[in-house]
Amino acid sequence: MSTSIAPVESRAAVRPPAVQAVGLAKWFDGAEGTVAAIENLTFTVHPGEFLCLVGPSGCGKSTLLNIIAGLLPASGGQLQIYGESGGRVRPDCIGYVFQRDALLPWKTALQNVMLPLLLRGVPMAQSRAEALNWVQKVGLAGFEHHYPSQLSGGMRKRISLAMTMVYRPSIILMDEPFAALDVQTRHLMENELLALWAEAGSTILFVTHDLEEAVALADRIIVLTAAPARIRADYQVPLDRPRDVAEIRTSGAFVDIYRRIWRDLREEVAASRGRR
Amino acid sequence: MKATRWACGFLAILTLAVGTALPATGGQAVPEVRIAVGPPNVVGYLPLYMAKGLGHFAELERRRNLKVTLVDFRGGSEAATALIGGDVDFATVTLTHVIKAHEQGKDLRFLLTFFNAQAMAMIVQADLRDVTSPAQLRGRRVGITSLGSATHMQARHILAAHQVDPDSVQFVPVGGPPTALAAWQRKAVDAMVYLDPLITMLVDGGSARLIYDVRTLEGTVRLYGAAHISSGLLTRPDVITRAPETTQRVVDVFVCTLRWLRSRRTRPEEIARNLPPGLDWSPAVIRANLGGLSADGRVLPDAVNTVITFLKRDGLLDPRFTVPVDRLVEGAFVQRAILGGGCP
Amino acid sequence: MSRAGEPPATAVRAVQAALVAAALVGWEVGARRGWLSAEFVSRPTAVGAVIWDWVRSGYLWPHLVATFEAAVVGLGLGLAGGAALGFLVMFVPAVGEVVEPAMSTLNAVPRIVFYPLLMLWLGLGMASKVGLVATIVAFLGYYTAVGAVREVDRLLLAQVRILGASPAAMLRHLYLPATLAWMITGLRTSVGLAFIGAILGEYMGSMRGIGNIIMGAQNLFQTPQVMAGLALTMVLAAAVDTLLARLETHWSAWRQVEQA
User: What is the pLDDT, as a whole number, of residue C181?
Assistant: First the structure.
């Protein structure tokens, strides 16, 4: 069910959709038999969109991201990335920021950010310069030669962001990236993310169970049901940009949207709790 | 990443090291004569070390461009195996090893004799005053290096010659010199058949008495009825065919050394003085063993037969095994060395 | 540089030195007084005199180098070769099927029994000793690589795949560094094994080396020389271990616990 609050810009006519899922399904064979994680998901993500996926914990959001990333094969349905299917990971298309940071611990911050460029055959000097640029962009100038173990959680997150964005992937998947951070750092990171996104113009699929974060960040929010995940609702978030995530939470429009979406989400959270 | 680069650099250095290390075993400008010695530093190979100490090998290298290298092995069998395998061209071991090799179908040739006596002796604990001869060892504990070893066989011969049934004594394996010493001090054995330098050390130290000395020619002849051959120089037939001159030169050195030793047989101090550095056999040890030294390295056919006979009698050789002496021994080189006189 | 609660490094060094000195004094006194049997253990002064004599006369150097080279070169080759095989087994399943069961069986065999074969192939010199040491430590390299690959963080693997790494790139950026981390600890434990292998190899047929010296000295009943050989082996092994400890600290810089 799609609820529009403002007219949707029809970008679809210009380029193929970034992600198109039709009847996507995933089940796992477990000890107690087959468990469905995702059931019959159909949705479209438009290029340049900031889409948040919210749902109760354990509903299959991460599984969905992993399928889109090509790390897991779908059990059923169709998935097209920029009009192409096949299920392989397309290195230029996709970036992924995991919940736990996935920095190579034996490489410095700079070397981590350089890695995707080196893997694409960018010459060493140029990779280094570009990576340094991004390290500065995420506000960590001076820390480029630190190892991840020498950086705080927030700093590691920023390097993860830099590492993902340095090669300008068209689609960036983010799985609750800021969940492990304290509130203030989280707000900082959210603002930075918005700034970087505005500059890069990528499509972002952002998974979170924090509805406030979703409303503050997204253009569009899809609410997923409790497991097995299906689409419960699809909302537009027509708040103005640029946004400051801390301040926007007090605006009236924000609260309205939040309340509306929360009603849907609350039932799903209760349903998932009830199942346990 | 730094560590990976370090690792690669280390591997590169490693490969270089390997590259330089390996050829050191192979190609050399001076032809190398390798002699397998098993075990190293035993009195039974005195002529070998004497030759080294007198500088004959150095001279061989200087005058004839032949570099003699000794390769040490843990025991005679290992040295003989190396000779059979072709890694060395000569070996100093015992005649027994040659015979055993032939039994297994491998062809080795005995070139010259070092000792015509066995380099072993039987001792008894000094405080066992009632034991004055091997005849009184019935029921006692007799130490040997290990079961089936040369010392074991020697002990059996000695006992048999004194009308003692070898099965009536208890043979105790005491291992190498350090453990043998420990066993002796602990009085774990009443008597022992062993080699120098331990024998001389214990006798001179007062904790042991000699009751049978096989190191002298008389002692050996009394036991076997004839001379024996313990140690000597061996080679393979293909070495003789391929490098007869080299073989002759090596044999010449040994004959010369044996003659020198014979001429100094009353002056063990002088012999001891001329040993290579590190070899610290005392004049006493040398004196005790000089008696059995071959005068000129000749290989006596009677002695060869004695060895074979007793091996069969001890059950160490198939009784039906026969081999013509000229397949076991290549005595021509020694003959030529003896006739040639003088040292090279 | 010491951390709070730990004694300063200099004090630790001083205590260690004092303990060593006390042991040496005890050994000397014990041997002189007859509490320790000098025929078997000799005295530090006698052993020291032997070593000094060897050093002065130049006798020691070729033997020391021979054993050191055999141990170190064998160690490097064995670990690298074993690791390479480990990677092959993990990345090429067909190879894994064949090789893996064989490795467990072979590992149970004391590699010294292969030595005669090695001598046959590689001769009597350095190569066979290097070969023996290499076969002894190869299994460590193998199991380290296999373990590192198995244990590699799934998350890192996923991230590196998404970043677009080819299998070769994954080996270089992910598996090799991960293995090195595991390897370094194993490296230090295998130093002792490497020297044992080198000396054992020399025992079984050699022209030079510390093992060769010990073998000869044993037959001459020269206990100071035997002890000197043992002492020198300890010194060599300790030297290599110290070097490796430095390397370990250096290479593990990235592992520092995060400052709160």
Answer: 80
| Tokens 């250095």 belong to residue | B13
Q: Give the CATH fold of the A15-274 domain.
A: Rossmann fold (3.40.50)
Of A96, A149, A150, the CB nearest to C159: A96
**Model confidence band, residue C115 (pLDDT cutoffs 50, 70, 90):** confident
Average pLDDT rounded to a whole number, residues B21-50:
79
DSSP state of C258: P
Taking the CA atoms of residue B233, residue B239, residue B244 and residue B249 in that order, the dihedral angle to the nearest 10 degrees is -40
**What interface predicted TM-score (ipTM) does this complex get?**
0.83
Q: CB of A112 within 8 Å of any CB in chain B?
A: no
Identify the CA nearest to C164 among candidates A68, A119, A110: A119
Q: How far apart are CA A38 and CA B92, in angstroms?
A: 82
SS3 C129: helix
Nearest CB to C220: which of B18, B22, B41? B41
Specify whether the CB–CB gap between A109 and A148 falls below 8 A.
yes
Instruction: Say yes or no: B266 contacts chain C, CB-CB below 8 A.
Output: no
Instruction: Provide the whole-model pTM.
Output: 0.80
Domain boundaries, chain A: 15-274
CA of B21 to nearest chain C CA: how many angstroms apart? 7
Pick the closest to residue A38 from A225, A245, A255 (CA basis).
A225
Contact check, Cβ <8 Å, A95/C169: no
Residue C41: in which H helix or E strand, if any? helix C38-41
User: Distance from first CA to last CA of chain A, Å, rounded?
Assistant: 27
Residue A60 pLDDT greater than 50, yes or no: yes
B107-120 pLDDT, tens digit each = 999 999 999 998 89
Q: Which of C153, C155, C163, C254 to mutate to test the interface with A (most CBs of A within 10 A)?
A: C163
- Per the model's pLDDT, the better-predicted residue between A195 and C259 turns out to be A195
Q: Cα distance from A62 to chain C (closest Cα, Å)?
A: 13
Contact C47, C233 (CB under 8 A): no
Domains in chain C (CATH in brackets) are: 1-41 (no CATH), 52-259 (1.10.3720.10)
Residue pair C154/A100 in contact (Cβ under 8 Å)? The answer is no
Q: Does the pLDDT of residue A1 top 60, yes or no? A: no
Q: What are the helix (H) ranges across B216-331?
A: 217-224, 237-242, 244-263, 268-273, 283-290, 301-313, 325-328
